[in-house]
Amino acid sequence: MRKLLQQLGFVVVGITLPFLLVIYQANAQTQTTPVLAPTGSALSANPAQLPPLPYAYNALEPYIDAQTMQLHHDKHHATYVNNVNDALKDYPDLRTQSMESLLQNLDKLPEKIRTKFRNNGGGHLNHSMYWQIMSPQGGGAPTGQLAQEITKTFGSFDRFKQQFNQAGADRFGSGWVWLVRRGEKLEILSTPNQDTPLMEGIYPIMGNDVWEHAYYLKYQNRRSEYLSNWWNVVNWSEIARRYDQAKAS
Amino acid sequence: MAFTQPPLPFAKDALEPHGMKAETFDYHYGKHHAAYVTNLNNLTKDTELADKSLEDVIRMTFKDPAKMGVFNNAAQVWNHTFFWNCLSPTGGGAPTGELAAKIDAAFGSYEKFKEEFKNAAATQFGSGWAWLVEEAGTLKVVKTPNAENPLAHGQKALLTLDVWEHAYYIDFKNARPAFIDNFLEKLVNWDFVAQNLAA
Question: Which domains does chain B have, with CATH numbers?
C-alpha cells in the first residue's frame, strides 16, 4: 500500500486537479484499505456521519461504564463528526474522497483546514473503529492465523497484551495505542492525540483509546487498570477481519 | 534533596461552591500531581539533576529526547503547583491596578483578553495548558501541549489553566468551555497573577 501511495504522490506532480480527483476516487475504491469495516467500505466524508453505537451504552459494563460510553459516543465522537463536516463545507471536491484517502494525504489538503481535519478526521476514523472492535461478547483470545502471528511476533498472547498495555500507559497526554502491520510484520505503536497510523500509510488492525475521556469517570488516574480490563471487551472476530484486510492490502 | 509536593493552598472542598468538587482535588492533587513528584524523584535519583532546582531541571531537559520523561514530570510538577495558586475560593472577577492596565494595553480590554484566553484554552487539542505570560515586557496568551510551559520557552508565566481532561472531567465532563468560563468568572486568583507580574 505504501508503495502505491508513493507512486500516487509521484503521479500527482504536474497534473490537473480534476484528473487528480479521479485518481483519488479510484484509489479510494480499489487501493485504499477501508478502516471501518463490517461492510468493508471506506468511511464517507460526504457528509461524515456518526455511526450508531453497535450495542447499548451499558453493554460493556462493568469494564466500561454506560455514562462514559454515552458521553464518548454522543458528545466526543459527535463533535469530531461535526467538525469534519465544518472543515470540508467549502470543499465539495474533497468530500467525494473517503476519510481514509484524506487522512493519508493530509499534505494535499488546503493549509487552512489541515490541522482541523487531521484532528477531527482522525477522531472520527479512530472512534468508528473503536466501537466496532469492542463487543459485549468480547474478550478471550484471538484464534487462527492472527493468534499464530501474535505468538510468533511477541512470544505469547500474554506478552503481546503486556507490551500493548505498556505502550498505552507510556503515551504521555492524549492518544492511542495500536497493533499495526508494517510490511510483513506486526508491530505495537502509539500516536498522540487523534493521529492515525494511516497518516503514514500503515493500516491499524486494532487500537485502544487512551484519552482520559475514555476512562476517567470509572478509572480516574488508573489508566493501567483500564488498559488491563479492556481486554474483556475486545471483539476478536472483528479484529481478525481487519487483520485479513491488513494482509490483503 | 528530593523534589516535594507543596500543600494545596486551599481546602480540597473549598471550591465546591464554585463548580469544582473535592473529589477532583483528591485525584488531581492527591494522585496526578503526587505521581509526577514521585516519578521525577525516581527518574532523577543519583543523577546530576537531583540537586538542581525544579526550574533548572525544566530548562535543562526541554527538547532533550533522552530526558523527555524527566522533562514531562518536572514540568507537570511545576505546572500543577502554579495552577493551584491560580485558583482561589474568593477568586474571579476582573484584575485591577497595574495588571489591569497591562492587560488593557496588550489586548485592548479585559473582555478581549478573556476571549483570547478562552479560545486558547478551548483549542488546545488533546492535553495541555492555556497561559497568560509576559515576554519582552508585553502580555500574551499562549497555549502549550502536554507538559510544556512558558518557562521552557523563556517566558514569564502569570496565569494558567489546566485543560487536560482530568482537570475537568469529574465536574464538567466533556464541556471544556463551561470549565473555562467557570474558571474566569469564579476562580482566578488575580492577586497571585499580580504578584507574578511584579516579581
Answer: 21-85 (1.10.287.990), 97-198 (3.55.40.20)
Same domain membership, residue A237 and residue A184 = yes
**C-alpha of B69 from chain center:** 19
Q: Is B128 on the interface with A (CB under 8 A)?
A: yes
Whether the ipTM is more than 0.90: the answer is yes
- Output the pLDDT for position A81: 98
Three-class HEC string of A124-187: HHHHHHHHHCECCCCCCCCCHHHHHHHHHHHCCHHHHHHHHHHHHHHCCCCEEEEEEEECCEEE
CATH number of the domain enclosing A153 = 3.55.40.20
Domain annotation covers residue A28: no
Using only C-alpha atoms, chain B has a radius of gyration, in whole angstroms, of 16
Q: Which of B9, B36, B17 is nearest to B166 (CA)?
A: B36
Interface test with A, best of B23, B36, B71, B125 (most A CBs within 10 A): B125
Residues of the domain holding A219? 144-248
Cβ <8 Å between B166 and A213: no
Q: How many CA atoms lie within 13 A of B199 on its CB side?
A: 11
pLDDT in tens, A52-96: 999 999 999 999 999 999 999 999 999 999 999 999 999 999 999
B173/B153 Cα distance (integer angstroms): 31
Choice among A13-27, A50-64, A235-249, B161-175 with the minimum mean pLDDT: A13-27
Examine the domain organization and report whether A92 and A126 are in the same domain: yes
Digit-coded pLDDT (tens) for B101-121: 999 999 999 999 999 999 999
Residue in B closest to A210 by C-alpha: B126
- Residue A61 lies inside a defined structural domain of this protein: no
Closest CA to A214 of A70, A54, A82, A52: A70
Q: Beta strand pairing status for A185-192 and A175-182? A: antiparallel
The interaxial angle of helices B190-198 and B97-107, nearest 10 deg, is: 80
CB contact under 8 A, B174 and A71: yes
Residue A202 included in any domain: yes
A249 — pLDDT class (breaks 50, 70, 90): confident
Q: Are A36 and A132 in contact (CB under 8 A)?
A: yes
- Whether B174 sits inside 8 A of A76 (CB atoms) is yes
CB A142 within 8 A of CB A236: yes
The number of distinct structural domains making up chain A is 2
**Which residue in this structure is represented by grid cell 472542598?**
B13
